[in-house]
Amino acid sequence: EAAKAKERKRNAIVLLLRYLRDNGYVDSAEVLQRESSLAPGTVDAADNVHLERIFRELEEHHIQRFGRAPKLFRRAGETLEIDAGGAAGTATGRPGQRGVPLGSDAQ
Fold first, then answer.
1. Of 33, 37, 59, 96, whose CB has the highest number of CB atoms within 10 Å?
2. What is the predicted pLDDT for the residue at 86?
3. Are both 9 and 51 inside the same structural domain?
4. Contact 44/14 with Cβ under 8 angstroms?
């Protein structure tokens, strides 16, 4: 399971790198590549896989299953309520991490 999680994370980074490059965010792509320790030119997204397509298919699946589009974003400053062991709580962690507002100073 840990290996699968690591592979999913790597796959997400590869897709994001391709998205950034395709949309002109070359400097951001270079920083992400450096921070993720992926060697340049070693891996790229498959020809038929694009981040926009994944979002579209997720949205279509969610609409088909639940009758509404998924909520992918929330307002900055909102926190995510989680259910841990039967009790609702507020997620904490790094800024930008699930449940932590972007721009938050909490570490």
1. 33
2. 46
3. yes
4. yes
State the burial class of residue 33 (Cβ atoms within 10 Å of its Cβ: 0-12, 13-18, 19+): buried
- Can you tell me the distance from the alpha carbon of 44 to that of 40, in angstroms, rounded to the nearest whole number? 9
Query: How many domains, the chain?
Result: 2
The rounded Cα 89 to chain-centroid distance in angstroms is 22
pLDDT in tens, 19-33: 999 999 999 999 999
**Is the same domain home to 31 and 53?**
yes
Range of the domain at 43: 2-66
Count of residues making up the chain: 107
Per-residue b or e along 46-75, where b marks 16 or more CB atoms closer than 10 Å to that residue's CB? eeeeebeeeeeeeeeeeeeeeeeeeeeeee
Q: What is the dihedral of CA 68, 69, 73, 77, to 10 degrees?
A: -10
